[in-house]
């Protein structure tokens, strides 16, 4: 369903499936958010680097994936459907006029067009492929524009809510690579874990929610380097859970 997501083919034998909520800055032609086009290249609109990283990782692992094909400013798919932040009015100091103008009916229509098909398909794919472990890829900015005095020094972070089975395996593996890895940093999965709460924790399915600092994966070289690091960590974590 190209308006909402794209799928990457994979083999259920991989035991894995990727869900990538923020991998696109695309805004459908019939939606005018009222923001300057340059905003769509910022982290408020897209997880920079994740689209390419997702392709490299899933190819190496041979696993299926569902990749969002809309900007998080259209609908933030990594929010609960009834969370007002799913149609963000403000994001890191940037105002989104069209979202501020949504009423209850037009907001529900936006969610029906994007959020429900995306998460419905993700659920169907999990049923089809029956993965041993889910994983998700995100990226974070080195500094928030509204908190430019607060540096985020982590190279990557592993986020989780209640189920920490996979994180406890993956964290030391990433640290062994010499990386500065956040344990529920740069923000906590106990506060924001919407997609994995819905598709993993609710099913009792182990998962890895991986955040990579976006300046490290913004170009092809960086994405390839991080894919080379992440692929064995993801695979070894899956195997250790068996």
From TrEMBL:
Q: What is this protein called?
A: Putative N-formylglutamate amidohydrolase
Q: Which domain of life is it from?
A: Bacteria
Task: Write one Gene Ontology MF term.
Answer: hydrolase activity
Keyword Hydrolase included in the entry's annotation = yes
One Pfam family from the UniProt entry?
Answer: FGase
Key words of the record = Hydrolase
Q: SUPFAM superfamilies this protein is in?
A: Zn-dependent exopeptidases
